User: What shape does this take?
Amino acid sequence: LYSYFPGSPSWPRSKKSLRYAITAATETTIDRATLSRVFASAFARWSAATTLNFTETASASDADITIGFHSGDHGDGEAFDGPLGTLAHAFSPTDGRFHLDASEAWVAGGDVSRASLDAAVDLESVAVHEIGHLLGLGHSSVEGAIMYPTITSRTQKVELANDDVVGIQSLY
Ligand code: TQI
Ligand code: CA
Ligand code: ZN
Ligand code: ZN
Assistant: This one.
């Protein structure tokens, strides 16, 4: 079953449009256009299940959600740990920060199962999970849910399960 953060924080129900900015993209080898495409696709999974919509904005100052790649200690007390281990983290509503570990072998938009590195991690799969956290979902006990707390490298998992849909629809 799905869960929420303590106190069930969410974005205001009146706010149907959330803006996101991709910052600190120079820390990864994936090109900017590909990043835009992958995050747009990840957000679209959640907008399809809710009345929310998401648009990319160039400036972090008018964004609700900021997405960035960082390595090691990056100033929020939650240092990244190099390849594998922690891949990314996102804060609960309405903080909006979504950080990815720049040390991962991120794969974007391809067939991650054929990636050359055993440690390759599918960017969209991690993004769909972290957006769930940004919107207020905690972890699920349902294996196969996007919010189930396990991911395997070289695996793509981007389709919301019924459990994710019921969880997000009860929050918005
Ligand atoms: N990052 C953890 C995660 O997103 C960070 C975390 C642990 C967390 N507990 C939390 C974030 C509670 C919010 C609330 O779950 S991770 C997965 C999964 C990670 C893990 O790098 O370990 C995915 C990132 F679910 F597969 F384990 C993406 Cl998909
Ligand atoms: Ca890591
Ligand atoms: Zn961080
Ligand atoms: Zn998680």
The first strand starts at residue 17 and ends at 23.
